[in-house]
Amino acid sequence: MWCLLLPSLSSFKKKRILLLSHSRADIDAIASSAALFFALKKNNSVSIGIPDCISLSAKSLAKSLGIKCQINPSTENFDILILLDFNSKNMLGSMRGQIEKFSGKIFLVDHHAGSNEKIALAANTVIDDSYVAASEMIFEWLKKSRFKIGKKTAAALACGIIEDSAHFMVADKKTFSMMAELIEKSGKNIHQIFLLYKNPLDTGKKIAMLKAAERAQIFKAGNIVLAISKVGAFEAESAMAMIRNGADIAFVGNSEKGILKISGRASHFALQTAKIDLAKNVFQKLGVFFSGSGGGHAGAAAFTGKSETIQEPLQKCIDLTMDFLKIKNPGLQLKKF
Ligand SMILES: [Mn+2]
Question: Residue 134 Cα, ligand 1 centroid: separation in angstroms?
């Protein structure tokens, strides 16, 4: 079990601890932070920090759980940093310099494929991409440390797992068995769990998703349907909506004041048959053309870079996808609809 590598959470006593996740913290990041906060606060002074900004739904979750998150806190008065849900320095945003200079102890727990960057000592770092969410890892760490998992902790971790598994699209049996336990401990049903962070009245999101569909450019390569589109905001949600609408691979983005943002999503079918990894095969390569960086998971990834227009980078995503698909099938043709 991964957490055997880290000290028991009960060994943290009278420490000043900062739980820090990645910039633009998502549900999994906040859920992991919240669970550790509830566990450690009894015997320590604990704060939750986030570099730069927090996603809207993660903000709703933090509010539902009654936890405070500080944007860009100073690390000066902390003995210990616990970094959650990332392992690349880029994800630290404007806090990068502070973390590089931090002289206390740093722990890192993450479920993304490992970068080669060293942020914490190897002995204090656990990166295991066999977990779909950092929340799953924290759940195991709490259990291993013999901490009682309260209702709020269970509900938070369930939210993290639901979101990072893309609503169980990438879940394995471990995920389902953890979810069964968490739902039971939370005292809530799945609908009540959703209400902790899903904002049903967010009309902006609904409109973005519909606009993405309205503006979609559609392609076909063999039996894979690809779609690209542009929206002013909610790229990730819109890309996911494109998958629900029938695309196998979707890229949705925007370019505002030269800042380029693109989210990519792939269907279960595309992941199984084409074995594409959007983070590795598309977004990591896109940086060469539109100076920036991308990452994430095979079926859900994002890119931030520079471009004055959106059409060209979206087209490049299609080209890079085709480059990958053609490795196995050199004769593959792209057809536009
Ligand atoms: Mn995550």
Answer: 5
